[in-house]
Write a structure and sequence with these properties.
Distance between the termini: 37 Å
Strand order of the largest sheet: 1-2-3
Radius of gyration: 16 Å
Order of helices and strands: EHEEEE
Number of strands: 5
Length: 92
């Protein structure tokens, strides 16, 4: 990993598509702290689907939509370039 900016004292906004367990956010924060101590780390997400395993919350969130653990959001791009977001049941 290479960060093209100084982490110490910086205000950092992590951006993720879908917040679920919080593990991805934790891994990103661990990596950031390997490079220094930021003044603040905030989180922006497109969707918060609930089901957290870690105490993580987004300061900026496009939508909250609780989803069963065995279901998934699927984001795809249509031929015209627009996006399609749908919910699909999980296997099992």
């Amino acid at each position: 990993t290479e960060l093209p900016f100084e982490v110490d004292g910086a205000d950092i906004v992590l951006v993720d598509d879908i917040l679920f367990t919080g593990r991805t956010v934790r891994a990103a924060m661990n990596e950031i702290f390997d490079y220094g101590r930021p003044a603040r780390v905030e989180l922006a997400v497109l969707l918060d689907r609930g089901g957290r395993e870690l105490p993580v919350a987004a300061q900026y969130c496009g939508a909250d939509h609780a989803l069963a653990p065995d279901s998934n959001f699927v984001l795809s791009r249509r031929d015209d370039g627009s996006f399609d977001l749908r919910i699909e049941p999980g296997e099992g």
